């Protein structure tokens, strides 16, 4: 898709940039505990400020549902934002109207202000055109740098983009370009790794991917549902037996599309789910006892998956291969992640990963920095994997 970037901006000295960012940050005891999302948008904010724009930041925080909730005020994150930017950031307790206009008047070119939590106004989540107009009245142009909120058609993510000249920020640009390379116009063959506990949470992802990729690697608890659909007795493993007909439909669709689905033929099982359980063993998938549960993919099966990855040029990854939070059921995820990272480093694979568990798993494996691109977007990343149009992205198209 074609969209306007910051490179397309002319002289912005003294102009007001309304910049949508994601400051939905984890907090504990009133303090920000993790600032990745601030660091992601810092290049856009600083670039605009350094070019002389007056930068007004728009973001949501939590789910206040149209009410002013004091502990969900964006005033709580100003200190963390200032620390990352190395600049003073003015806090404005409104998102539109005279108070914002006064703040714009006070700001010098290159100044930065953060407006209040957009979700304190009920019109935000309703994409109220009147609220969008009121916000737009204080801006000259709009920049969306919050891909993580792009799946929501809200006043500050979609509405504003139709009222002012709209541009993708640097983080949004990187995300769209990386995702475009991964699924929209990928170098083939393409592999997708989809893991996690439940098929039900990723049905639409799986249905879409089998029409787009050459290899679909299914792991985690959801693999058990596919194994059961194929007649495998999975013992007391996590399994959505009611979805086995749907799993069969997905396998049939994959077959018709020429997509090879990889399910584990060797698994790591235990009678109890705990760290390093005494009943731990590795076995063929047809040898799982009635009182055992599948908790990871076995090493031989991982080697076979590695061989499949070595034939591919592009990889999209969402979800762990096993119960990776508990040792030793992280082994398959770590091993496969390291193989993907090595292939990426040698230049033979473009690797894109996304989703909270996935990012945590790649950090755990020590290879997050070696993937071509890691999306922290969560819901928006999943909806992109489902092939859905994202309103916040669509609104930036030219």
From TrEMBL:
* Pfam entry (one): PGK
Q: Which UniProt keywords apply?
A: ATP-binding, Cytoplasm, Glycolysis, Kinase, Nucleotide-binding, Transferase
What family does the database annotate?
Belongs to the phosphoglycerate kinase family.
Known pathway: Carbohydrate degradation; glycolysis; pyruvate from D-glyceraldehyde 3-phosphate: step 2/5
Q: Does the keyword NAD apply?
A: no
What residues does ATP bind to? 202, 325, 355-358
EC number(s) recorded for this UniProt protein: 2.7.2.3
Q: How does it assemble?
A: Monomer.
In the record, what terms sit under GO molecular function? ADP binding; ATP binding; phosphoglycerate kinase activity
> What's the protein called, per UniProt?
Phosphoglycerate kinase
Which SUPFAM superfamilies is this protein grouped with?
Phosphoglycerate kinase
Instruction: Specify the species.
Output: Novosphingobium umbonatum
Which InterPro entries does the record associate with it?
Phosphoglycerate_kinase, Phosphoglycerate_kinase_N, Phosphoglycerate_kinase_sf
Predominantly, its location class is cytoplasm
Q: Which gene encodes it?
A: pgk
């Amino acid at each position: 898709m074609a969209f306007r970037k910051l490179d397309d901006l002319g002289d912005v000295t003294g102009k007001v940039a309304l910049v949508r960012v994601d400051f939905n940050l984890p907090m504990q005891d009133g303090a920000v505990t993790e600032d990745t999302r601030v660091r992601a948008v810092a290049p856009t904010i600083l670039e605009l400020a350094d070019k002389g724009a007056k930068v007004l930041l728009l973001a949501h925080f939590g789910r206040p549902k149209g009410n002013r909730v004091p502990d969900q005020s964006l005033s709580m994150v100003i200190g963390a934002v200032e620390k990352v930017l190395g600049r003073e950031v003015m806090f404005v307790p409104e998102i539109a109207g005279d108070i914002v206009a006064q703040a714009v008047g006070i700001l010098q070119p290159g100044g930065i202000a953060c407006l209040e939590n957009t979700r304190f106004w009920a019109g935000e989540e309703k994409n109220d055109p009147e609220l969008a107009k009121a916000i737009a009245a204080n801006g000259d142009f709009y920049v969306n740098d919050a891909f993580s909120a792009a799946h929501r058609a809200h006043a500050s993510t979609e509405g504003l983009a139709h009222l002012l000249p709209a541009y993708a920020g640097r983080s949004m640009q990187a995300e769209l370009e990386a995702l475009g390379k991964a699924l929209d116009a990928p170098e083939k063959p393409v592999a997708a790794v989809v893991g996690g506990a439940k098929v039900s949470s990723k049905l639409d992802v799986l249905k879409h991917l089998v029409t787009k990729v050459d290899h679909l690697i299914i792991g985690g608890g959801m693999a058990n549902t596919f194994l059961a659909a194929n007649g495998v007795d999975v013992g007391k493993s996590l399994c959505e037996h009611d979805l086995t007909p749907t799993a069969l439909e997905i396998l049939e669709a994959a077959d018709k599309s020429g997509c090879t689905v990889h399910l584990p033929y060797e698994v790591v099982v235990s009678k109890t789910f705990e760290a390093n359980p005494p009943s731990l063993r590795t076995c063929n998938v047809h040898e799982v006892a009635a009182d055992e549960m599948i908790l990871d993919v076995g090493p031989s099966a991982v080697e076979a998956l590695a061989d499949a990855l070595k034939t591919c040029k592009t990889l999209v990854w969402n979800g762990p291969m096993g119960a990776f939070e508990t040792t030793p059921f992280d082994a398959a995820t770590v091993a496969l992640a390291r193989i993907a990272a090595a292939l990426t480093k040698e230049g033979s694979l473009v690797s894109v990963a996304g989703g909270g568990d996935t990012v945590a798993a790649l950090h755990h494996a020590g290879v997050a920095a070696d993937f071509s691109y890691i999306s922290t977007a969560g819901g928006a990343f999943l909806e992109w994997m489902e092939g859905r149009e994202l309103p916040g992205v669509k609104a930036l198209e030219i």
